[in-house]
Write a structure and sequence with these properties.
Kinetochore protein Sos7 coiled-coil domain-containing protein, Sos7, 6 helices
Length: about 280
Amino acid sequence: MDTAKIEAALGRLEELQSNHDVSIIKLSEPITSSAPQDVRQRASDASNASLDGPTPSSLEADLAHYTELFSKLRFSYVEQVTKEKFIRAIVGDPPLIVTMQENLELEKENAAVKSELKTLKLEVADMVTELEEKGRQLSRRYENVQLETAKLREIPDKATELEARIEELRAEQEYPGSKPHLNLPLAKTQELISRRKREQQELARELEALQSKAPRKRKEADRLKAELQPLEVKRHNSMSAAREAQRRKEAALGGVADDLEQRARWWRASESVLKQALDIKGSG
């Protein structure tokens, strides 16, 4: 991979981006520079704040505000002009008298002008919609260019890493270690592949045979389990009986021991009495 071409393309992109900074502030400069600045306005005015730091939402709010404002100004202008013409027609010397035919002609002209104005408004609306769509497309393309530029900056480092990895693999290939099959010639490699495929097919056949025997073995295991259940019950009963017999035997032996212990105590008491009696007689 030619890193020089990548670096040249990256440098060209950075130069273009530095010369053409695309941002809301830069795009709004032609609008803000043409707006008349009134030195008597307060610094806390909302319109000034939106022009100082324009954002998409603030520009959209300003656009809606000025649209409504110009609509009101147009209505006021038409109203004032109509009043002025009406007053001049009344107070003029001689007064202006308009006939019915003239009114009809004016209405026709007015209808034609309104129709033309409506057509122009529709064209302007379509143009605005088209401009908005183009603006969104350009914004997406600009973001894509930024993303691709970031990826392009990472390509030289990744290319260097890949080249280093290739050199390591080549070194391992030149000095075979624990994987000698990686250095076999083509004929032996194909032979090894064929042998491994045959082994794989043999294993697949054995697996298929075992899978076919599995249901029968499963049934046999279920049968043996069913036969073992009575034996388990018998074993449990036998163990319980053996424990009971052991307990009874231990209980019986425990009774004999108690009897022997009582007899031993009696003999010891008798011996003590006899010794005392003999001692008394000897002293007498």
